[in-house]
Amino acid sequence: MPDQIPVTVLTGYLGAGKTTLLNHILTGTHGKKYAVVINEFGELGVDNDLVVDSDEEVFEMNNGCICCTVRGDLIRIISGLMKRSGKFDGIIVETTGLANPAPVAQTFFVDEDVKAKTRLDAIVTVVDAKHLPARLEDAPEAADQLAFADVVVLNKLDLVTPEELAAVEAKIKAINPYAIIHHATRGDVPPEELLGLNAFDLKRVLENVPDFLEDDSHTHNEHLTSISLSTDAPLAAEKFQAWIGHILQTQGQNILRTKGILSYQNEDRRFAFQAVHMIADGDFLAPWKPDEKRTSRIVFIGRDLNRPQLRRGFESCAAG
Description:
The protein is of the alpha/beta class. 32% of the residues lie in helices and 27% in strands. The protein folds into 2 domains: 196 residues, 3-Layer(aba) Sandwich (Rossmann fold); 103 residues, Hypothetical Protein Yjia, Chain: A,domain 2 (2-Layer Sandwich), CATH 3.30.1220. Helix 6 crosses helix 7.
């Protein structure tokens, strides 16, 4: 739907620099107008003077974490924004640093009104280059935030040596080999690299990184793994939907993100599939090119995933 407003979920552990990045976006000279939903949960929020100067609408949610207690508030605020006369170029939701971003992302699939008027554009995770290794050891949320990311802002580069930077980047890629990584010192990433990406439905990612889904990595962080599967056999849509529905229903708590580009039998268009835990969504994209190999690929990022079982299940979806 052309009138859907893109929503960017901004996440990252306490002290990573989310607010600095957000202020960088709001005070930029991009000429666009963003509504901002801030989750204040024991953190310093956006500087109100900056917000006023940049003529933004800010909705502070001080009555709890939007990620676990007040999804209804998020739905209400998004719905309210849609009724305003002013046109927004996008909405940015800044989550608390202790939050798992999944429930926020799921909001844009579970409420029909929100789903009709907005689309989840990307999950952007900000990380502190100096302290991320320690956080990955003592805070499971830090690994979860990376696993959900479409884009990672590797921040505070001025605090690390080139060797430390290489090591921390390797840790990020071990958890999520599919996220785009941007380097920053004080959140100084151009807004166009973070907003309006269409990253969540894979269109832009596949345009820029054609082999995005081909990395067949094994990763590890508290049993956190990424598994990439592919098949050249056309899939039966009904078989795939039944299989993936069963997988997400029975293992969805352990599966953080799922992404896939699928080739259905008797269908010239690619099918883009994505899920956050048990909440799934999908849509047809541009047709396959005439000389293009129609390979179906799917990626799971989660804990304690069974590769042989997932591979057998995926291959059983072949039309026949």
